[in-house]
Amino acid sequence: MEGVQQMIAGVGYDKVTISMETKVYPVIWHEDRVLLIDQTRLSHEYAIVEIKRYKDMARAIATMIVRGAPAIGIAAAYGMYLGARDIQKSDRDGFLAELKGVAEILGNTRPTAVNLFWAIERMLKTARETSVSVSEIPQVLLAAAQQIQAEDLNTCQAIGDHGLAVLPKTPEQLNILTHCNTGSLATAGYGTALGVIRSCKAAQRLGRVYADETRPRLQGAKLTTWECVQDQIPVTLIADNMAAHCMKLGLIHAAIVGADRIAANGDTANKIGTYNVALVARAHNIPFFVAAPLSTVDFRLQSGEGIPIEERDPKEVYQIGSTAICPPGVEFYNPAFDVTPAELITAIITEHGAVAPGDLKNLMVHQC
Ligand SMILES: CSC[C@@H](O)[C@@H](O)C(=O)COP(=O)(O)O
Q: pTM for this structure?
């Protein structure tokens, strides 16, 4: 299939390249455009979507072609550049006003992952503070987006190292349960929770990964298992309601998840179902870790109560493929995230070390 080009009818993207290549960088800057791995098609199909306009980037984020908090931030940063390069205004105020409009459209895509707003804000600040001429601002923004992406890769590797240091010391190799997808696909590469798992494997301490399927979008089943297969990480797929049973049988030594937004007190919003994992882990005395970059911490929020929870299309709940799984007349609720209270979290693993949720505030000085 390599090199086959095709149009996605009616979606507005330039073109899609299908290939069997398995390198996992979800966002790639190539010549004059951004290439995204289409995460809605994995694991059955590896497709690349080309993005040349910021509105297409906004649509790619909203439709989850690119997803996962850090990857959303990186994609939005490139979206800011794409928007900037199309701005016709030559006066600084006019240019910045239009750039703010680009920021609003990109920011209106997904409300929970704070990395989106963090990246957009950082790009706006870069544009405001640069001393170059207006015509040169887009180039400065391209460099800033590339910088955000490069930093995230280093950040994930640091999270992996710090995570490895706090994993339980067991005589046998560790079996780790994870929820959703927090791997290369969700970041610049390597991953957060899955990054810790990669580091654990590199240290020859990993037994296997238990991947929750992660209803309704199935990021665990479709994306995490795919990444594990690419990298020969032993993986067992389980349905979301099997975690307690597996823990009771002694199959799991630790649970590690990612985060979309962490409040200053350590309350953590992550993919719906994470809270269940934390509760069953506590019931079985199993450590429950959150792995995330500091860009995922929203120090303006004192607790998780203020975290906006995205509600998505109810079809994600009532349909499997195109088949409805319940009779007409049923009501639906489809929150995409839940908030795990800090007291259920053993430690939050960041690029600056692993801390108890109560000590997260000490890391605020490192946030840029
Ligand atoms: C390193 S990714 C951390 C989180 O973003 C991840 O766990 C998650 O909840 C992703 O949600 P998604 O809706 O797929 O964007």
A: 0.93
Which positions are annotated as active-site residues? 260
Residue 52's SS3 state is coil
- The burial of 1, by beta-carbon neighbours within 10 Å (0-12 exposed, 13-18 middle, 19 or more buried), is given as exposed
Candidate of 64, 271, 295 to mutate for ligand 1, largest count of ligand atoms within 8 Å of Cβ: 271
Question: 110 in a domain, yes or no?
Answer: yes
Same domain, 79 and 180: no
Sheet containing strand 16-18, edge to edge, reads 4-6, 16-18, 47-51, 33-37, 27-30
Question: Is the ipTM, as predicted for this complex, more than 0.90?
Answer: yes
Type of residue at 160: G
- For the purposes of burial, counting CB atoms within 10 Å of the CB of 145, is it exposed (0-12), middle (13-18) or buried (19 or more)? buried
Positive or negative, the Cα torsion across 104, 110, 113, 115? Answer: negative
What confidence tens digit (pLDDT) does each residue in 164-178 have?
999 999 999 999 999
Q: Name 137's Cβ contacts closer than 8 Å, sequence gap at least 6.
A: 84, 95, 127, 130
Instruction: Pick the atom of ligand 1 nearest to 39's CA.
Output: 14
pLDDT tens per residue, range 186-221:
999 999 999 999 999 999 999 999 999 999 999 999
Q: Note whether 138 and 188 are same-domain residues.
A: no
From 36, 72, 155, 180, mutation site for ligand 1 pocket: most ligand atoms within 8 A of C-beta:
180
Number of residues assigned to the chain: 368
Mind giving me the DSSP string for 84-127? HHT----SHHHHHHHHHHHHHHHHTS-SS-HHHHHHHHHHHHHH
- Indicate whether 352 and 271 sit together in one domain: yes
